[in-house]
Here is the input.
Amino acid sequence: MRQLRAFAWLRWRLLLNGVRGSTRRDTLEQISRVLALVAPAAIVVFSLGSVIALGVGAVTGGLVLAKGGPASEVVVLVCRAVLAAQLLIVTFMPLGVSTQSGSKYARLLLLPISRRILHFVEVHSGIADPWIFVIVPALLLMAVALVAGGGVTAGVFMLVGALALLAVLLSLSALVSFLAAWLMRDRRRAEWSTLVFVAVISVVGLLPHVFVGDAARDERAARVDGRKAEGFSIERVESVLPAWTRALPSEMYGQALAAATVGRAPAQAVAWIGGLWVQAAILYLLSGLVHQQLLDAGDGQSRRRGRQPLAWLPRVPLLGLEASAVAAAQYRTGLKSVRGRLAVLLPGPMLGLLAVVVARTPDEADWIAQIPNYGHLVFGASLIFAVYAMQPFTMNQFASDRAGLTLQWLLPISARNLVWGKAAGTFGLFGTAALLALIVTLVTTGGGPVFLWLAVALAGCATFFTLAPIAAAISALFPVAADLSKTGSGGNPHGAAMLAGSILVIIAAAPPGLILLIGPRFSDAATLAVSAGWLGLVLVITMPLLTLASTLVTKRLENLYLTR
Here is the structure.
């Protein structure tokens, strides 16, 4: 318990230090720190609301189960569904958090704690994580409500079951966290595993739409054949679930709850609860093995540093040698980092796959069948998605370089060349993502006039360049240390910068979007001409604004140095 209290105190002190910061920071930097807490504070507020809602639901459900009746089976089904969702959250949330600090475990080894105790403390300290703590009061209140309603035996069983389920969730969360941290210790392994994980999650996230489409087709076929479509029932849900789902912790807890209340079968309840404890023991032992490997592994960071003469770097049209060097460095950094690869590789295939799934979903709406004829709009949505995905590079373009920014300032590179080079390099990443999106969208849809496809490409460029000077200014005002090899919050820009960027993307995309929506009513060629004119106007306005943003970068140079 003393080690648990020490870790709790350590987390509290880290939170306070993050808020207070250093007295040497200027007023804008202090405001930046406060604004950075807006998102975590919102998460805490919503978490408290979830805790209260789940607690009220658990008390109500426990009282219903204690009294018995037809509604008991529905309560058990709802509990199983809620716990299944909670199991998914507990499985995937640690993946983002565990990739935030690669040096965390090396520092913990300096503490006077044995590895066995360190593993025990690490696992049990996870109860303070929001995605686990949110369910704890509900599990305990369910048992209390059963006892209060007269089901003392069932309440005692479910109290032990709640502790077993909590042990499973803690061990599972620790196992996932340790495994992800071990993968992230090697840079190349981390990058490829991250790309595979995001791709798999993106595809899996679309599977429900496919299943819903199959169910809808069956229901419509039943109506056509004159058969009565089978309605919702608990028996139908049980028949659809595969047999292996019975081994899930959420299902085992649900079966124990049903046996202790609805079925009045104490022996079955004991068996299911015992299975939960067995799962908890297995997951705890596996997490211990991975934790041992994590502590024994090296940092896995490559120490190779290559040099390339400045004269050999490619020249960007209309830019000097120094700005071209910055642009090349920005582009190569993006292609070599996890965030950059996701921003380039994800938008096109994701929107193309979504278009295919939506197009095959049966529905009476005529617009779904017309999706292949409006492939250029799917292409436009991919470009907007790409602009959003580029925020780690656009809204934090200086601080994300970390020590590389110092090296750039040691070279004869002015602030103007730095800003222009960053804009050109990021536009290169956007152009690569746009080219991939174009190819994927043409393959998946292949419909629409050529002039409109060209107009969409120009509209995407206009949206990007509209944001370029604003992004440079925001990056100078709200810098935050970020690691572009991380997929979690450790690679994100400042919270205020992300919020401003999300709003500004919509504003910047509104004029060219209106042109694309209204223009085809008159002429496709006219739409292309107006889109080209809008892009030209944006470029005329953007060029002096980029130079103006470079003066702000010079004034904020000291603050940028402090974010390394």
